[in-house]
Amino acid sequence: MRHFACHNIIVCFPLGLLVMFGCARRPPTPVTKTEKSTSPSATSHEVSGSTIRMADPAGRWSFEARAQRVETASLDGPYALQAAECRYQQSGRPPVLMRAARAQVDRSAGKAVLEGRVRLESDAWVLEAERVEYDLNEGKVLASGGRNEAPEKPNR
To answer: What is the C-alpha to C-alpha distance for residues 46 and 3, in angstroms, rounded to an integer?
Structure first.
């Protein structure tokens, strides 16, 4: 009988632990999602992989930057891009395509600074420079060390 009673303890003890602490897998910890600001004065932003997207909440402009490498201290930027390709679109105007060896994008200020073999082009013009500062909110460009030209139009 003692052997049987001991066997019951050996079987019942682990069953008691399972009942007390549970035998099922614990549910995964919920993932916290970052929410976009719903404030009308805030600019909307999206970062995915090596792409940075920004848009004016009033729909006046949008900006997208892609790079081989993006570095930032925080999700809010500013961002340092290597081998950057950018696209700036103002409402009602042709897009401005940009390429540079390096770029700094500050989404809180709505500015982009491109450096090293910078090339900006649109339907009506081409700009090549060593450094370009682009105010995305105003659509203004400040360039240094370069030249601006209108692309040649074919003869009709």
So the answer is: 68
pLDDT per residue over 47-95, tens digit each? 555 888 999 999 999 999 999 888 887 777 899 999 999 999 999 999 9
Count of the separate structural domains present in the chain: 1
Which residue matches tokens 């081989």? 68
Express each pLDDT in 4-25 by its tens digit.
Answer: 444 444 544 554 444 444 444 4
Is 80 part of a structural domain of the chain?
A: yes
**Residue 129 belongs to domain spanning:** 44-149
Please answer whether residues 80 and 100 qualify as being in contact, where contact means their C-beta atoms are separated by less than 8 angstroms. no
| 30, part of any domain | no
CATH of the domain at 55: 2.60.450.10
pTM of this structure: 0.63
Specify the DSSP element, H or E, that contains 10.
helix 2-21
- In a domain? residue 19: no
155 found inside a domain? no
Q: Looking at residue 151, what DSSP letter applies?
A: P
Whether omega before 57 lies within 30 degrees of 0, making that bond cis, reads no
Q: Which residue has the tokens 């066997």?
A: 7
Tokens of 71: 């570095």
